[in-house]
Amino acid sequence: MSSSRTIVNDHYSFGPLDIPRSQVFAETPLSYGIVNLKPVVPGHVLVVTRRIIKRFESLTEDELVDVWTLAKKVGSALEKHHGATSLTYAIQDGPSAGQTIPHVHIHVLPRRDGDFENNDEVYDAVDASERAIGGGGERLNLDAERVIRTPEEMAAEAATIRKLLFNNGVNPNAR
Amino acid sequence: MSSSRTIVNDHYSFGPLDIPRSQVFAETPLSYGIVNLKPVVPGHVLVVTRRIIKRFESLTEDELVDVWTLAKKVGSALEKHHGATSLTYAIQDGPSAGQTIPHVHIHVLPRRDGDFENNDEVYDAVDASERAIGGGGERLNLDAERVIRTPEEMAAEAATIRKLLFNNGVNPNAR
């Protein structure tokens, strides 16, 4: 399960978007973790497959293991780091499920009691966040509560998470 | 990846609840798929780990592969069967994330355009459904729109899905 293999790409994509390396906080042979343009809770990040594939059913078994193993490690580390008590994991697998970027990605959200008045609202926020990335905007009803972040803020968060994973004994560049 | 190994239990649990075998539509060495007391869309089912564990981080690598491989197969089969175009996958991992049954489970929901007025609402409904199972009820704001099903209805759906998986070349009793 573990190897010290390190992948260094000079290019990271999230669907049609280029993702700066500074925003990638972990990478494995088949996946990477990226910070979010509009996190809806502290530590809301995405874990994506390295290969640009639209639908979850197209993952190979190796990709499935890799992306979920990474998401699980990231979730555990972020939950502790943010003093949270639970996690939400969600995949919007296809446009009718709210997917706006045609590239498999797992939303990982550290959760704590009362972070949303009703638990339901976290998903409203996830959807709004996803629509913000995808360019749609008409239904951004929670937009006023959040701010689109600068590349510098996002790079800083990625650096923090990378360090955090290392400190928790997780090599962000290996599986 | 495939084997013809068949597990036959005489007992299935979902947290503290006993699940009749008739409501189990697929099983693998480490997981099984069960129909839902209050599905929020046609084909809304749960995929659970055979071992009763509360948090996703406690899954072994074998369990993680097993439960997600099964969820992926079930999702693909149900999407086609229900004429859907997308899927929502969600894990409420811990009470603060809306988990009411302390047993890792993946919600799998076939989705189609317009099944909810806003995509967000599907999650409200998932949460309400989960609270119904867990016994909480104060916040069941969508309750009026759905009906708790009889054991017979649930067994019939499980039988349909089991057949469906077989017809799609997926052995519901093997991995």
Automatic annotation (TrEMBL), chains A, B:
- In the Enzyme Commission scheme, what number(s) does this protein have? 3.6.1.29
**Catalytic site positions:** 105 (tele-amp-histidine intermediate)
Keyword Cell membrane belongs to the record: no
| Keywords for this protein | Hydrolase, Nucleotide-binding
Residue ranges for motif Histidine triad motif?
103-107
PROSITE patterns in the record: HIT_1, HIT_2
> Which annotated residues bind substrate?
36, 92, 107
Q: Which cofactor does it need?
A: Mn(2+)
- Gene3D superfamilies attached to this UniProt entry: HIT-like (3.30.428.10)
Carries keyword GTP-binding?
no
Q: What class of enzyme is it?
A: hydrolase
Q: Which residues form the HIT domain?
A: 10-118
Which residues of this protein are annotated with the site description Important for induction of apoptosis? 123
Q: Which reaction does it catalyse?
A: P(1),P(3)-bis(5'-adenosyl) triphosphate + H2O = AMP + ADP + 2 H(+)
- GO molecular function annotation: adenylylsulfatase activity; bis(5'-adenosyl)-triphosphatase activity; nucleotide binding
Protein name (record): Bis(5'-adenosyl)-triphosphatase
Q: Which organism is it from?
A: Micromonas pusilla (strain CCMP1545)
